[in-house]
Amino acid sequence: MANGKKGHLQKLAGLLEIPQDIVMDLPRITMLGNKQLLIENHRGIIEYTPLVVRIKLNQGELIVTGSNLVLGNLQMEQIFIEGIVEAIRYDT
Fold first, then answer.
1. Is residue 5 part of a domain?
2. Model's pTM, two decimal places?
3. CA-CA-CA-CA dihedral for 4, 89, 53, 59, to nearest 10
4. Taking the CB of the first residue and of the last residue of the chain, which one, N or C, has fewer CB atoms within 10 A?
């Protein structure tokens, strides 16, 4: 998406009081301590092991590393990860 179009969408979202993650197709990431992670607006799972979860996003991927990582409550728009989350990296 061109920078000009992004700027217009951000302004429109602000004027209409719509969350930018919806307008700009961005992921929403909610973390509860280092035990639970909720990722909304994803494009699928690339890799899943008890140590690494890689999730495809519209603009890159999210890499979650830790131990005893377990996927729960998989839905079309959200993924719930439980375990010990040690690091989260957003690669574009």
1. no
2. 0.76
3. 10
4. C
